[in-house]
Hints:
The protein is 31% helix and 20% strand. With 284 residues, it is of the alpha+beta class. Flavin mononucleotide binds next to helix 9.
Amino acid sequence: MEFSQSITELITSRSSWRSYKSQTLEPELHSQIIDYINRQTQGPLGHTTRFQLIEKDDPLRIDNASFGTYGFIKNARNFIAGAVKKGTRHWEDYGYNLEKIILKMTDLNLGTCWLGGTFKRSEFGPLLKVGTKEVIPAITPVGNGTKNRAIRDRVIRWGAKSRTRRPWEILFFDGSFSLPLSVSNAGKFAKALEMVRLAPSASNRQPWRIVRHGGTFHFYLQRTPNYSGFTKSKDLQRVDMGIAMCHFDLTVREAGIVGGWIESEPKLDLLELAEYIISWEEYK
Ligand SMILES: Cc1cc2nc3c(=O)[nH]c(=O)nc-3n(C[C@H](O)[C@H](O)[C@H](O)COP(=O)(O)O)c2cc1C
């Protein structure tokens, strides 16, 4: 078993943590992390990912407490950072794999926080020796969180409305975007969709939309207009899509439902700024 707790327990118990105890990791924990991240080398859509545990132990740094995170993360000594080879769906594959890692860290009782905007790519790039064909979509601190969230953390969470999620009728559809999918009509897939709904996303924008056609689930990205998380060097909403794919995939697998990802865009009337990403199909 990859995780000691059920995937639904891990997804519901995870939340972003931005204030850490300034401790080094126990050697046993350290090697468990290295072992797990070293195995996340391929996303479900075929792109190569690599991850590294970066330890910050230079006590002389001026911005020591917030190393490379513009002060958004307090006292973390360890970060998991990674890179992915550019391709057609590399943002999604990276999102999928880093979320799997984040859920594994949750399973190990460690705090994490997706960082796609508030970290210095210029500091992490050289540490990762990022090649010209690679990008660093996001990173996470990892470690023991403080007992209570620091005030700054609470302010950020309040600003991003981090505890709230959109309701089913905004996110999930039955056959077309004009008919919302109800929990009862989702049947055995309801849990997996609920786990998508609870996923973390950049600025908590929750851009994923899913249309069901029988045993096939078409994943769409509903882009946030003028979103700052979309620049040439980063497309955080496609990373969000990878996170949604991860939650869906791990939850159906745990339920014993067998299927896989396929490119199969249906002809649907799309809302403005919506993009087809990928479909998941149950094997018969
Ligand atoms: C791709 C991605 C990028 C993110 N980037 C940042 C970031 O740069 N800084 C930050 O403080 N939080 C960042 N977050 C965390 C989100 O704000 C957070 O996941 C969301 O508000 C939901 O809160 P929760 O994770 O506690 O459930 C990011 C999340 C994701 C998924």
